[in-house]
Write a sequence for this structure.
């Protein structure tokens, strides 16, 4: 990134996988944000050790915040915590990365699988956007041109997936018949479109990004894309977004994916 992507950013699910790699690349960039809020469900647990070590190295930039995307009360409290630490009360960028995937076919999918996946992948990002909206608005209000939409101004990025595409389902369903995951991410895409329309008047950009099939705990070891390559592509796309990209689903090369 040649110029700072934003002054302040919040990443959900930042203790592992794509989320942790996002924090790594953001903080290690020569043009890193002034404030990076790294959120996860259990900041003191063993799965957050690497995140804690990274935050210890960059105390002046990284703030770890407890945030469970399945718990509205936790999201609300996280918003208050972040608000109290923001330097000017404004937050430029939210990356809704936290998500779950259950690799189940129709015959194995239970009601709980559907409900739990929907709660994490759809309801969580919606309430994060809702609770942090005042800080996004404050950031956006500092720009006078309403059409000057970017992540440097104010934006919400929802991490979606290629397999959320209804149009492209026939070409990839047989390889990954994951009902709960596909359906929840398709719903996340609709949330993205809805938020993009509602937030447009405030100059806040909202879009969804497909990070690729990434070699993480969720993506599995057969995935062809390394986390560092995925995040490098994500940040390149995110840093170049403009008003025309609000309400879209893009891949890490900036190509549009049909709904």
């Amino acid at each position: 990134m040649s110029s700072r992507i934003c002054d302040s950013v919040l990443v959900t699910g930042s203790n592992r996988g794509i989320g942790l790699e996002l924090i790594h690349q953001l903080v290690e960039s020569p043009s890193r944000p002034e404030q990076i809020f790294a959120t996860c469900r259990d900041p003191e647990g063993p799965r957050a050790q690497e995140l804690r070590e990274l935050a210890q190295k960059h105390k002046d930039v990284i703030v770890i915040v407890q945030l469970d995307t399945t718990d509205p009360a936790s999201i609300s409290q996280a918003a208050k915590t972040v608000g109290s630490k923001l330097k000017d009360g404004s937050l430029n960028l939210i990356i809704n990365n936290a998500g779950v995937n259950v690799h189940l076919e129709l015959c194995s999918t239970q009601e709980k699988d559907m409900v739990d996946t929907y709660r994490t992948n759809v309801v969580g990002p919606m309430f994060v956007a809702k609770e942090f909206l005042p800080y996004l608005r404050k950031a956006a209000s500092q720009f006078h041109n309403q059409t000057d939409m970017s992540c440097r101004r104010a934006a919400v990025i929802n991490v979606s997936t290629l397999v959320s595409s209804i149009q492209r389902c026939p070409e990839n369903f047989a390889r990954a018949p994951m009902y709960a995951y596909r359906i929840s991410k398709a719903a996340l895409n609709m949330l993205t479109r809805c938020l993009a329309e509602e937030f447009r008047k405030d100059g806040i950009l909202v879009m969804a990004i497909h990070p690729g099939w990434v070699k993480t705990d969720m993506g599995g070891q057969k995935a062809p894309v390394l986390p560092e390559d995925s995040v490098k592509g994500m940040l390149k796309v995110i840093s170049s977004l403009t008003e025309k990209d609000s309400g879209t689903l893009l891949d890490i090369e900036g190509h549009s994916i049909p709904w």
